[in-house]
Structure formats: C-alpha cells, structure tokens
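Example A, followed by Example B.
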Amino acid sequence: MNAEIIAVGSELLLGQITNTNARYISSQLAELGVNVYYHTVVGDNAERLKQAIELAESRADLIIFSGGLGPTKDDLTKETIARHLGTELVMDQTAMLSIEAFFQRVNRPMTENNKKQALVLDGCKVLENKNGMAPGMLYSHGNHTYILLPGPPKEMEPMFQLEAKPLLATLLNHGDIIVSQVLRFYGIGEAELETKIMDLLETQTNPTIAPLASDGEVTLRITAKTTTEEEAQRLIHETQQLLLSRVGDYLYGYNDDSLASSTTKLLIEQGLTISAAESLTAGLFQSELAAIPGVGSTLLGGMVTYAVDAKVNQLGVSREIIEQYGVVSAECATAMATQVKTMFKSDIGVALTGVAGPLELENKPAGTVWIAIILPNDEVVTHELHLSDMRNTNRLRAVKRTLHYLIQLLTRNKSL
C-alpha cells in the first residue's frame, strides 16, 4: 500500500506552525510497511484541497488528512471530501454527547458551530477523540482508503496510535504481525554509518532496515513481518546483532530513548549523583536532564555562570586561572566542574564553557567548546569541540556531546 499525507491549514503555509504531524504519521506508517511517497500541504481553500485530493488519488491507495475538522468556517476538510466522494455528512451522537459534556464540565456555553465537529462521513468508521472534540474517520471508497485526523498533535497522535493504526494493521496484514525495533546512535554520521552497513541495506528483505538522521543522531529501524511475535523478535535480534557488530560502539539506546534518558538511566542504575556548571549552554544541559522522569534522584543541581564575575564570585573559580588560560579553556572547564561537584557534593561534576557565536571570544572562533567531567574517583576528562558559527545549534550540540561522553564513561566503567 502506498500513502500520501495531506496536511490542511493556511497556518502551515505561512510558517506559523511546523508540520510535525506528517513526520509522526510517516514514522508510524513505516512500522506497518506502508510506503509514503508524498507529503502535501494545502491551505484552507476548498478548491485547492479538492485538487490535492484528486492528485493524491492518482498516486496513492491510502490518503491521510490532518487538520480542518474544527468548528470554524475555514475548517473544511470533511465537507470537501464528502462533496468530492458524493457522500453525506451525518451527526455522530457519541461525539455530540462528548462535546456537550465538555462544555458542561468547563461551565461554558456551547456555540452552535461546535455541533459541526460531530459531523462525520456517512458509513465511516469513527475514530474517538479522547483528547479533544472533533472525532476522526476512516472511510473506504472504491480503491482508496481515507483517514481524517484532527490537526493538534496532542489529539492527532493518540488518535492515530490507538484508533487508526490498529484498523490499518488489520486491513493490511491479514493475520500477519509487524514488529519494529529502533536502534539509536550518536557520534557517527549517517553517511559513515550507511557505508559500514551498505551490504546489509542492499540485501535486506525481511526484516527491513531503515536509516534516519537528525542533528548528529542516526537511527536504524528494524522491521519484521511474520505470523508470530516470537518469530518477529528472533528475526529482529539476528539483524540487530549483525548491525551492532559493525556500528555497536556508537549505540546509546533503543526505541524512544534519548541521550538524556539513557544518561539518567545509567546514573540511577549505578546510584550516582550529578551536578553541572554551565556557561555557554546557560542551563540547557540541566534542562535536558530535568525533562526525564525520575531524574530527581540523581540530578542534585547546578549553576549558570555566564559572566566571568559569576564564575569567580558565585562558583569560586580562581581568577588567576581565567587570567592565565581564559574562560574558553580546559583549565577553566575543569575548575568549574571541580567547584560545582564540591559545592553540591555530587559524585560527578560537569562543566560546559566556550564560544556560542556568532562572534569570537578570546581570539577563539565561534563553536569552540570545552567540556569537563569530574568522575567519582576525581579523574578529570576533558573534550574540546569545534562546532559551527550557529549560536543555538552550538549550544544544543554541546549538550548532546556531553551526554554522549557521559554515556560512554558510565557504560565502560560501571564501577566509577
């Protein structure tokens, strides 16, 4: 089955919001073995939407829409599809009761146009919206299947995952099951990784291997299709072992893991605490860790010491070190990590200092970063980075590199 995703909304074309829905839906369809060859974005215009539907029908079996199911006049997705397919819109009573209950719950009057959200294509399979008001739909007509989903990601993602995806799996697989495993890598580029596993990519059948890169990270999705869960897991394990024999040194996690979650997991497993002193990243390292549930048992705290005086007066870095070596130096980073480790009585101290950019500092070009990690045995590990002149990209990449180094250290020496 081939699919096309049509995102509806003028705000997408104007750049007011990012089309994250297409990315999410594509990743979910990949797990089902559905090919996605086109992403289309169209504004809130019935005629242009009709043209987009006709074009999609000429090249896809499955057409998935996101957006345009709301109560306002410019929400016209289902009306346009109904006219195009020659079907009617009917009131779904379950959805209507849910909408009425919402307004009663928040003690607000329900305007007449909200009833529009409960209209669905006659004969469709209604997809319940547990996080909003407008229901989704799955509708088959001729040789095509149409899925209509709400635009807000907090409504669309759970609806697709819990309602639409199981229905699609039933339509597609006729008793077979599809199981996927994602391997996550850092510290190796997509091109280098692909070169190391090219023969496996060229000869893949079942399971399939799909690479994907994003800002320094690379993932490999292994997908097996068979009749039992056990057989699928066996096939995935065999392929995974082949891949890791080539690029296993760069593996940091699986599936929904992130660099921050993998770091946190290792710290908790080993009963270690951590603190951080940040200059150019201004708290971003601690923020990434703080996004992970359970991090409170390992992240004790830290300091943002952006200015020289803050490094000296608040953190206690020797002014002589800064005068002799500068703030963009291994010596300054080491002093910052040592001081924060002592201050918070943590097992590990981390420091990041450098030149975010785009201007140079201390005759050091933008993107020059020093990272220091003080281990429980007081061993000092430092790394110098040479990144780009893009300020916020440098800050994020410095944080990711720091997490990557911590994962390597914690993985290789469980007895720190």
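Example B, a separate protein, is given below in the same form.
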Amino acid sequence: MGHAIRGSSQGAGLLTLALVTASCSGSTAVEGGRTPQASQNSPAAVAAAVVTVSPLDKARGVPTDTPILIAAQGGTLRQVVVRAVKGARGTLPGVLSADGTQWRSRGTAAPGASYEVSVTAVNPAGAVTTTTSSFSTVRKRETFAIENFMPGRDTTGLTVGVGMPVMITFDRDVSDRVSIERNLFVRTSRPVLGAWHWFDNRNVHFRPKKFWPAGTRVRVEARLAGVRGGSGLYGAANKTVNFKIGRSQITKGSVQSHHLTVRRNGKVVREMPMSAGQGGNWKYHTTSGVHLAMSRENVTVMTSPGIGPGSPGYYQLTVYDTVRISNSGEYIHAAPWSVGSQGNSNVSHGCVNVSPSNAKWFLDNTLIGDPIIITGSPRVLEPLNGWGHWQESWKEWLKWSSLKHFDTDDV
C-alpha cells in the first residue's frame, strides 16, 4: 500500500460539511415518474428528501477552490453531477460520505466558467427528489504554469539519489503560496515525512526530513489547473511526474584527510585519494557541507572565476569525467596532473581532484541527487549554492513552508 503527502496540514476530511440551508430550484418528489398520491399513514407518505447545495443557486464570482457541498436530509444521495456548461469542459469529481448523505467536490473549478449542479436523492420510501442549480466562478486575468520541474527524464533521469529534492519553478511570480501548496501532492510507496519550501515567489521545493529511503517510488501531482496563484492569477494546467529513488549511495570526504569514501547501502564500495582546494584566496577553498550530485559530464571546460584572459591567475582547462556538486564551480573530476598530491595535500582551485580511473568510476556510478558530504573546510556551502537543501536544518527548512510538514497517508 502506498502513501500520500498532502499539501494541507488540515486535510479535506477535516472540513466541516456545514451547508447553507436554502430553497433549491427544480426540487420535486416523484415516484415512478408521478407525484406520489397516498394517505398519510402509507409508507409513500414519508417526507421527501431535502437537498441543500452550496454555493447557492446562481451564485457568481465563486472562488475556484471553493468546495461544492451537497447534503440530503431525510434521505440519501443517488447521483451528483457538477458539469461545466460554459468556459470549460468536463465534470468536477467528488467524494460521497459513507452514509450517502453528503458529497464534496475534489480539486478546483476552472476560472471564468459556469457550472450546472444536478442532484438526485431518494427517501426511505423510495420517493425521488431531483434538484438543479448553477453557479459561475471568478474570472481570470492571467495564468501561471510550471516552467521547470525536477526530477525529469531529460534533466536528471527518473531514477535519482536519496538526497534528490523535488524542484518546481513557475513561469511568473505567485503570491498565494497556501493555495498552491494545498494542491501539491507527493505520493510515496513507503512512509515519508517532508515539507515544501519556498525560495522565492517562483520556486518551491520539497525534501524529506531525512534522506529518501532507498527504492522508494514517488509520484508528484501538481493539481494546479484553476488554482489561485494571486489576484486574478490562476493555474493553467496540471502536471504529474513519477520517479524512483535508487540505491543509497553516500560519499564522504575530508579536505584534511584528503580521502573520499563511497558507501552504497551502508557498505564501503570505493576508497579514493583526493586533493581539495588549496585555499589562500577564499574562492579556492572547497566548501564543506552536504552537496548533491547536480550533473554528470564527460567533458567540462573550466575557467577561472572572475578573472579574464591575460590577468594574473587566469586559467582555462578541459577536464574529463566530472560530477558537479555546486553552482560555484565545484566538481569531482579527473586530474592526472595532481595524482601525486592526491591523498596528501590540497592543490586545486576548489574542485575535488581524483585520479582518471577513480573519476571514471565515480561518473559511471553516480546518480543525480546522490549526497556528497565534504568536511574540514573553513568555507561552508551556502543553501542556495546549487542544491544545498540539506544545509538547512529541518527547523530552518520549515520556516519557509506555508503549511509546514506532512506525515504520509495511505493511498
């Protein structure tokens, strides 16, 4: 059985189904297509079921995330259909309560659309009540969409490391973070505790409290069609992505011991001498912290940061078998020129140098999102330097979550 992390700490099940009692248009009680004719003592004389619908009939400017709530008093609901009749297509799905007396829509309506609600209820004597009503939603002025989503087939592959975050970038600024988070769902094949985190008005990322369990299957559902992103701004479309967490591979290294150790599922699978940043200039220190493998490149051309051709300290190198670990130009890569220093001293400009054979092995055996933990340097990896998500404590991570953390539920 799987599990789902829902984008709301309250959950749909905790919403009170308190409905506004109102006269419902088109409400009649029929039996066999005719109005029942019976004495007050006959079973057919049982009062007809009374249906209440919210929003009220002919309501206008209804927010798209307003739930459609329907209840039957003195009977049960037999059929509920909420169909778009103008400005959109299709019907809104919903959930019927266990006793058959209440129905609640799921998801969001389309902005600028008109809907018709058709309800059929039946009382204990079998008399049928039919009710119809209509409403229209608030008009949209603009839409927003997902511009970039990771993990992805073309960017990271669909099997990723245990440190991999879910990263969503929107094509424009949004302000209603709560509404958006409530419609972001992370479903997993085993329990996970995690939270969304806003880096700015366009980027919201998800990570677990701890590294993902190896082998976890993950499904992310961004149900954003019609979701409010700000004043007059609504989501254009839904998006669903499935990916898998691979084996657990965690690499640890120290700039002081000049050594990397790779553990797969807890067992050491590779020991590699290394040479880290030489220091002196701050930018030549390798950063300490929990890095993630961000890319795997067969060939990378590296140039000196902030220094142009002809200036002291300028360099341009073509290096092979590289794994990027930050946005400040740090890689683990082949460095045949520093093999003699690997394992005993730091001579690089900030990258982690290893031998060509070790670099090739590391490239071939690394998944995007694998953690690479470096210690011993005075320069600390910043959370926004690449994928430094794990540099924030769980408490710090939650500061930028609108709905805080979520335990998984059974799917």
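On Example B: The chain has three helices and 31 strands.
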